[in-house]
Design a protein that fits this description.
mainly alpha; globular
Length: about 80
Amino acid sequence: MPNTDETKSPPYMSFGVFKTAAETLSEITVPSSPLDRRVLHQLSGADHGSLMSGLRFLGYVDEERRATNVYRQQIGRAHV
């Protein structure tokens, strides 16, 4: 059965990749440009791809890989 908007399955990313990226991103200003290899240069290509899929699934980035308001709210909570 193909995935539709109603049956999205979550992408796989390792918790270590997610944690490292979250720590890196929490230390910098939320970029207005896409979260690309310039921002997350320490990740391999495969890890970057899986992270972007995961962040998109969670609503943290849009289709153009730009941070969403959901992402900004989460980062704001982390700094309180």
